[in-house]
Amino acid sequence: SAPACREVFDSLGLTHDLAALEGTSPDQLAQHCATLRRRIVDADIPQALAAEIRAAHAALVAGRDGVACAVRSSATAEDLAGASFAGQHGTYYYVGAAQLLDMIRRCWASLWSPEAASYRASRGIPHASVSMAVVVQEMVLSEVSGVTFTANPVSGNRGELVIESSWGMGAALVDGRVTPDRYVLAREGLRVRERRIAEKRYMVPARLANGHDERLVPVPPELVRREALRPDQVETIARWSVKCEEHFGAPQDVEWAITDGRVHLLQSRPITTLEREEPGKGITGKYVLFKPLAENFTDPMTPLSADLIAGNFQPVFRTIGGRFYANLDHFRLFIPFELSDAELADVLYSMFAEAPPKLRISLKRLPLALAAGLLGWLTAAPTLARTRGMPDDFMDGYRERCRRVQHDPTLDPAGAFRQLLLSPRLLEPIGQMPILVNATCLRNAPWLALLRRMLQRWAPKLRPDAAALLCSGSEGVRSAEMGREIQALAHEATSSPKVAELFTHHAPDAVLARLRDEPAARDFLARLDGFLAVHGHRAIREFELQAPRWAENSAPVLAMIKNHLLAAGAAGHGDKATHARSQAEAEVRRALEQLPLERMLGVRRRLVDFAAQRARYYFKLRENSRFYHIMALAYVRKKLLEVEADLLRQGKLKCRDDIFFLRWREVEALRAGRLGWRDVEDRLRERRLEHVRLAKITPPKTIGIERPQRPAVAEVADANVLAGLSASPGRYEGVARVILDPSVDAALRPGEVLVAPYTDPAWTPLFLTAGAAVVEVGSYLSHAGTVAREYGMPCVVDVPDATRRIPTGARVEVDGDRGLVRILDGGAA
């Protein structure tokens, strides 16, 4: 009980020490807390109290073998309406009689963790007023654990419940070490509005078998992407959570667990805040979300990725809330036009796909812009010159350079990043990532704009998507070729009935081991190994260094192959884009031949052909350059995994993947011995939880920029019409399928409309069978637009909340000419 705790504290003479803590500085408070924790942990519990505790424990477990207990803190100032102290006091699992007294002392000592003490100080709770009860409970050996919020903690919407679930004990979820499955339910009728099944890579097991004492273990492969809850369990958990709120009279944070199919409610406490501060609050300066990265990777970056990637491009870029932002003031140096902050942000966010309307030269800005532009051109001139007409295989030797860097012991991960992506090399333009990206972004847009202008002037009656069609079908795009190779792998699998049968009856995570044991799969495996030798550096969320590469885990590739097997016999896109482009070229030629002297001289036709060829080439160069940027990042990741393995061996880190939640300077300090595990343990937990929170937030497009209120567009006033940007022309009507992660769900049926939050090359195989695509974040230059044009399918990008507003099963019309998506019927969720 709490009085027993107070009695022990008094016997140790802590009363005076606790009173002296009030008003101390944070550094002094941390020092005093460390001393207090040592005194409590090392103290003897009075004999009478210790005997009483042992007797109660013996009665709890009497006559039963294998009963483990949880020893849990319950402070007298905990779970208040305005101060939850969530996770700041000790909880210990798998406790038997031998460890019981020690764990109770540790629970008492956790009152003086730096986090708990500073939390009390910030809320005006006197340190001397608190004490600690300790609850010793039989453990629920959880097969599935989770938490329910009876109001949406991100949006503050009290009409929604949020359920998060994962395998094993709840500690992995509470500590932020696993991304859980997530359900958003409407309170009315408890209908599931949103369902996101995560890649649950780790779990805290319910039992420690064979003396195995690791707290965090890998989830069995067949469960990694499997939904942890059945629909009836989702409904049961939601119903009981609502009862908790009705009982306590306020929105609740409910923890629960399932064992042997039975739901146990473990804890219910008030949600202490329904709206957290969005990223960017309190930041000075003007920033715009960097769309070239955001359209391919919507999650927040881990701290280490942000350090190694964004840190090399400061102050032009910075990470805010884990997202990559461009500094508006730095970009303004290169802009000689009169543009407001909001107008310039619009230009940057649309990635220069089209020039903004009504540009006005600023005589005041012109000299500085010309000087900055000249300096930038001189810096980029060698790269610009070398990349005017490169063959498709111009970087095939880059992989060998990556291997040399990987095996160079003098280069750490940060040095490898600089060597592969920043260091200029005479014959390897890919080594200057920002220059090459900017060069291709800036060069394809003017050619496209010029092409449109010529067609509007010389052939105004042409179809509005003529320019887009002339730029489509850019053969040699690496990501499009990768999709065709996936299709070829599926064809290889169908040539062997035994291989096809294994794919049919086993999940992608488990099928590879079965294939390795099957003699008939030898040819298929050889082809798969060849595919991974070329494309194995790619991944879902591939700009994130934490993301496992396909060479490490080929399950996403096998899932794509399985999807093609399910779609066997369906007609793909084939040469549709090439055919459409040929038709557009013929129409342009006929229209231009009506002009004076054109049939004789053909000047206008040659100019149009040249502009289209240049735009196509730079679209391809932009997409292909990414192939090598990601290759470099994959080799930087290899370096990081070597460092992580070394730190794990030394005990300076305890769990795989923790390294990605450290800053690079902290990794260096761990390697040098200036920091140890205890120095980084708490910050790892805090950053993991913050990363989970940030992943649930839609980042603001601009920070520090006032945007005028714009009237609603009459054309899209209909709630069933979603407006975006045209990325690939054409119209298509079909059934929608929402896919949030192709490594989890790649089951897109032939002809369905792919609805996605973003796309990167890992999504490309889905484009082969999709009838059209609708993407929440993107642009004309994005991966989704480039591949959709390559395959000749309609694509609309930059459609806000498309994955929430369009349910799977709804019939939709995708208008790639005007950038509109119409929901024709609601379908089945």
> Any idea what the radius of gyration is?
30 Å
Beta-strand content: 5-15%
Structural class label: alpha+beta
Report the strand count. Answer: 23
Largest sheet: 8 strands, mixed
Distance between the termini: 50 Å
How many distinct helices? Answer: 30
* Major β-sheet strand ordering: 16-23-22-18-19-20-21-17
Mean pLDDT: 83
Residue share in helices? Answer: 40-55%
Approximate shape: globular
Low-confidence stretches: 79-87, 710-716
Question: Key terms for this structure?
Answer:
829 residues, alpha+beta, 8-stranded mixed β-sheet, 6-stranded antiparallel β-sheet, 23 strands, 43% helix, globular
Overview of the structural elements:
Strand 20 (772-775), helix 29 (783-791) and strand 21 (795-797) form a beta-alpha-beta unit. This protein is α+β, with helices and mostly antiparallel strands and 829 residues long. The protein contains 30 helices and 23 strands. The radius of gyration is 30 Å and the shape is globular. Mean pLDDT is 83; it is low at 79-87 and 710-716. Helix 3 runs antiparallel to helix 5 (100-109), helix 14 (398-406) runs parallel beside helix 25 and helix 18 runs antiparallel to helix 21. The chain has an eight-stranded mixed sheet with strand order 16-23-22-18-19-20-21-17, with helices on one face. Strands 7-6-5-4-10-11 form a six-stranded antiparallel sheet, covered by helices on one side. A four-stranded antiparallel sheet has the order 13-14-12-15.
